[in-house]
Each structure stands twice: as C-alpha cells, then as structure tokens.
From TrEMBL:
Residues 261-331 are annotated as: Disordered. PROSITE patterns: C2, PIPLC_X_DOMAIN, PIPLC_Y_DOMAIN. One of its GO terms (molecular function) is phosphatidylinositol-4,5-bisphosphate phospholipase C activity. It holds the Pfam family EF-hand_like. GO terms for biological process: lipid catabolic process; phosphatidylinositol-mediated signaling; release of sequestered calcium ion into cytosol; response to stress. Its EC number is 3.1.4.11. Keywords: Cell membrane, Hydrolase, Lipid degradation, Lipid metabolism, Membrane, Transducer. This is Phosphoinositide phospholipase C. Residues 448-577 form the C2 domain. GO terms for cellular component: plasma membrane. Residues 303-318 have a biased composition (Acidic residues). It catalyses: a 1,2-diacyl-sn-glycero-3-phospho-(1D-myo-inositol-4,5-bisphosphate) + H2O = 1D-myo-inositol 1,4,5-trisphosphate + a 1,2-diacyl-sn-glycerol + H(+). SUPFAM superfamilies: C2 domain (Calcium/lipid-binding domain, CaLB), EF-hand, PLC-like phosphodiesterases.
Amino acid sequence: MASKQKQTYSVCFCCRRRFKLGISEAPSQIRELYHNYSDESAIMTASHLQRFLIEVQGDENITENEAQSIIDGHKHLSIFHRRGLNLESFFKFLFSDNNAPLLASRGVHQVMSLPLSHYYIHTGHNSYLTGNQLSSDCSDAPIIVALQRGVRVIELDIWPNGSKDDIEVLHGRTLTTPVALIKCLRSIKEYAFVASEYPVVITLEDHLTPDLQAKVAQMVTQTFGDILFCPSSESLKEFPSPDSLKRRIIISTKPPKEYLEAKEVQEKEELTKGKSSGDEEAWGKEVPSLRGGTISDYKQNNDDDDEDDLNEEEDSEEAEKSRQNGSGEYRRLIAIHAGKPKGGLVEGLKVDPDKVRRLSLSESQLEKAAETYGKEIVRFTQRNILRVYPKGTRITSSNYNPLIGWMHGAQMVAFNMQGYGRSLWLMQGMFKANGGCGFVKKPDFLLKTGPNNEVFDPKASLPLKTTLKVTVYMGEGWYYDFDHTHFDQFSPPDFYARVGIAGVPFDTIMKKTKTVEDSWLPSWNEVFEFPLSVPELALLRIEVHEYDMSEKDDFGGQTCLPVWELRTGIRAVPLHSRKGDKYNNVKLLMRFEFI
C-alpha cells in the first residue's frame, strides 16, 4: 500500500503536476473468486481456503490444517483473524512470496542417476571475461558470480605467460588482460558448491607446451585433491551420473587450438565498426527466431550476420603433435575427452559404442548441421556430449537462441554470462528448473530410440499437446524499487507487459498487453492462450516495459519460467533486473491454467 497519497512532478520551473497515488487493490476477478469461496459474512474460513487451494490453485494434497496455518500467518491483516481471511488479507496472501509460480521447496526432484549425457548442463563460455571478447579484463570475479548463480561448466583458456614459465588465463592474442590460472582454480574450489552440490566441469582450451601441461596437472591436483574426478581408464564407455559425481570437479579438454593472425585482425576490425544497434538497447536485442527473423510482436531485423565463426575450434597438425607429446599426468586428469576428429561433421557425429566423448560446434556450425543432420545430432547426444559456443563475431559478448541446441539434445549450450539480455534470460529461466541445481533432465523424446532405431526428428511437425492460458491481472512494487522520476520526469509510468513462449519454432510467440497510463499500479486484466506442441522445452517469457513516446521504451523487469514446472492457479510472479537479480518488491499477479 502506498504510504503517500499524492505525488508531484515538475513540468517546468514554474509548473507542477500532482497525481494521486493509488492503493493496491484486488482486481474484480479476484474479488469475485473471493466471494465464491467465502461464507455469508464474506469471510474465507480454513475450509473455504482449502477448497480454493484445491480447485483453483491445483494444490490437491492441501489439508485444512495447512489452510489454517496460512490464515494464522495473515492474522495481523484482518480483524476477523480468528475465523478466516477477509478480502484484503486474501489479496495479500495471493501477492506474497509464499505464492510463487515455482515451488522452491520442491528442490531437486528429477532422477539424477542417469549418465551426464541425459541432462542439460548450465554452461559458461570464456567464463573469466568481465566484458567484451577483445579488450576486457580477465578475472576470477565472473567465475565466482557464475558459480553463485548455479553455472556448472566453467571455461578457461590457458596460455603461457610472457616468460613461458607459468600459466595465465586470457582470451588469446587479444587485448584482454590476463589472470593467473592458480587464482581461478582456487576460486572455483571455494565457490563450486555454494549454489549446487552437483559436479562442476572445467573445460580447458589448452595452448600449452608439454612442460606447462605438467605444471597445470600439478596445480589442478594440489588445488582440488580428493574432489577431483579422475577416471580409472583413459576413455569412458558411458558417462557417470550427476548423483555419483556430487561435489566433484571434472576436467574436460581437447588438443590445443591455434589462432590465425588473419582471424584476430578480422575480429579487431569488427570491434571498431561501431555501435551494434540491438545490444545497447535498454533490455537487449530480441531473441533470434528458429523460424527466421525474431521472436517478437514488433517488426525487427536480426542484426547478427551468419558468417562462419571466426574462432573455429579445429585441430592443426601442430596441435595434434603437441597433444601426443603432452604430459602423461595432464592426460590422466581428463575425464571428458573432447575434440573434432578428422573427416568433418559426418565423421564427428558417429557414435562409438565403446567410448563417449565431447564434441564442440559453434552456433553457426550447429545451425548449418541441423539443416541436414538433425536426427544424427540427436542420436549423437543420446550418449555423447555436444557443446555449442557463440560464434566469434559476438565480440560484445552477446548470446544466441539456446533452443537451437536444446531441441537437438545439446547438453552444454555455452553462454557469455556477462552478456545480459533476452537470450541470457532464457538460459536463466531454463535453469530455474530442478531446484536450480544446474542440471535439467532432457525430455524423454530426445533420449528414446524407436523399434527401428529411429530417433526424434527436430524438423517433424508435432501435434498440439496442451494450451497454456495466462491471465495478467496487475503489477506492483515499482514505486518502492525505483526513483519516482526513473521512468518519466513529468508523470507516473505508462506500463505494458509482454508475455510469450520461447520453445520449438511452432510454439514460439510473443504477445503484448495494452499500456496503462500514469500508474505505479497497472491493472491489465488480459488473457492470452499459447498452444504448445513441446511443453517440455517451453519457457514462459514475461517482461514489463514503460512506454516512451519520444525515446526507446524503458525496462521495467523480466522473468523467464520453465512451463513444465509452473504451478497452476493465481500466482505472484517476482520480476528481475536486466542482469537477472530479483527486485525487492516488483511482482505481477498472474494466473496459469492448462486447457
């Protein structure tokens, strides 16, 4: 409830406008529901609340005693607290943190005893970079932040230092300033399991001589000790499970790669071409659609070109020779073998029944491969691990649409975690699932093989499975989390919401509410329906913006939620900042139904 009754805005030095501050009140649909589930005295008793929680909220196992506990928790809001909830306290309950769209107490609830290849894994790209790919500082700070957010795969590019007697982490032959490898390793050990007890994979992009590889082996062994997972044989026939690797560190690497001077020059030229139109917007570019164009209710162009990656991770003869002569101690640490076999993509996607491995493809390579080899990619990822990484032209550390990887079974869809914007919001939304542990089991259809050895075809037309009905009632909290002139110098904000689905191409869409003018408490009361063919890969996107007639609309919050874990019923949906940090007070009141 607003503590002030009026708010004043300056129009000019001699003119002021005053606006009434509204009070957060239940929308008409909520009032109607309340009266349907209360007694003649307009009080919602424990038995009435229990019935509401079962019939509207879908909480089928709720008891009357649990309903009474909810009432007891809202006694201070109701003069009828001994009997039940009045309308005000019922409305406050609906808007409370205990009525979230995802059930936090559910925690890790998926089967975690299957091989690593059966899970999507929260994966970072160039995890040590603080900013762009060419001139930002390298540090252990973004690694720490990533681990605190539940990222489970940390990438380190390791190079000899200037005197060739130690190892540094940096984006090779760019203007990035290095950080010592040992500092990164120690930070990984300290923060690896603060957000999740499931394993952390360190992927090493190795540019070292054999003597420095031996030094890395010594550093890694001494730093991690018993928590380092070292396989008993050089190659694994099947990956171990997340359960069996709890609180363990895993090393994954492939032969060193060589950067060509011409590629560096081209990357640096890209950096000097000037402002990238979408990435500097208040909330970032719209996510590229897998159907072409963008996922948007606006007409926008996808500004990213489709050039080949400037940073192809291919083996050279020199690199192969270095690997063969490499340190034996170093090779024994590698639990997940990676690389690109000679013979191109067809050869690379062949499944070896006797050993498993990791293959890396750039987003561009995956898009091209998916046009012809979609089913082969799915088959490969049933046993092996596919890592997808951003193309080299993403020098501003932007990201791509992760669904291209996920719908083909790619486990490690590597993102620039400092590349804030809509693509990263999808990544954060996916890994809210399964208790935020950093591992989400892939849908069964990507893991199954049919009677004739057939696998899921990502290009196949799929039947409608369900429809998600979303009601956007209202929002509140901006008045407390933002300065009163943050959105508009001369009046309260004009908010609108965007709601939609990121998923397989058929399911992907964005819709928009009307704009509510001059209100810190926008009430939209709009209903949207989203037909879903693959709800197992659908993410519900929610954004709020403030309409600005003369400039770009202002950002007012966002969240992204895994559809398959949504709690049905009326829920209080907390919104997050552009970086993914939850606001203290900003929430939307929404209803979710599957019809």
